[in-house]
# Entry
Amino acid sequence: MPMIRLLLFVEITILLCSYNHSSGAQLPDNSVESSKQLSSEQMLVIEQNIIKRRLAVKSGHVFLQVQSYEPPKSEGGTLRECFVEIWFEDNKWRSDYYSGDRVGILQRSIYTDEFYIHDPSNTRAILMYYKKSRPNPIPNRLIDPRKIGVVAWTIETQRQLDIENVFTRVDREEFSFKQELLGEKEVLNAQFVVSGKFGKTRFSYELSSEKEGFLPVMVSNRDINLDPDLPTVSMRLGNQYAPALQNGAWLPSKTHFQYFMNNKATMEEFVVVHEHEFDLDIDNEIFTLEGLDLPAGRAVMVDSRMKVWTAGRKLVDQIKGTDINYNLIDAPVDQQKNFSTWLWLGNGIFFSILATLIVVRRYYKIRS
# Structure
């Protein structure tokens, strides 16, 4: 089933717990005394502030640890672990996946206004596409950390949902909100309905309204006639916030994601934010081939044309020939030059013999 269709039958939940006082930062002061004093217009302003604070962050560097279990860990599930290092600045993105703590490269991807680069690492050639041929929209593997805690979805596929998937929607109906208790914590619960071509979807979210100043603590959406046989998603966030982003925006330090089928968890994912820096001046080389620190001789497929990375940090055309020898492409450039010399020599001998045979045949044809 297409992912867009699937989202209509998904329940997504985010819970943010206590503030980490050890960080020494202050929470944004935008709380009010009671939700009874709020109008729909005021609620919209609160939503707009949540989104604006995230989007105000224009650059950053984040290091994540991702642990997935299928089935869940408690049922002896198989562990799939990776670490992800992320850089972003304006519309430039890079995500590097590792099997360990910055060791064992699994894949690397870069996306800018000019090109898209993907290093799958399990094949010999890097893929590079310029503006006209690059994928659009940005591939899921390029993570936007500003969505963590606002968009509830798996960390490696969050790009399929817009940061305004729930907040600030203008197509909502039956918008209501009230004060509730979440454990011992007072929260503001809001609900609304959106009508789409696949039916109606009920959205809800909760905001902390005491001390934490209306930070999101839960976001969910489900089909009104939810079929128990269809998947359900739940996500909970750990009991700490990472240090503030720009202008009072906050980032959770840990998430716990679960995927349910027939009301039974079939997989789970843990994400831990180990490092986080925002509003940085990032060296532009990070978002280029040079920033990948490629070895000489590495093959790079540029818009379906094979090229080779040299020791001088340049791309040159692949040696001419009918077949591509990938083992040779990974060899040093001087070996490629030697191969090219023998290839041209062999072709020269072949065509010389062919020309001689043609001349001899014509000679005997004339005499006969």
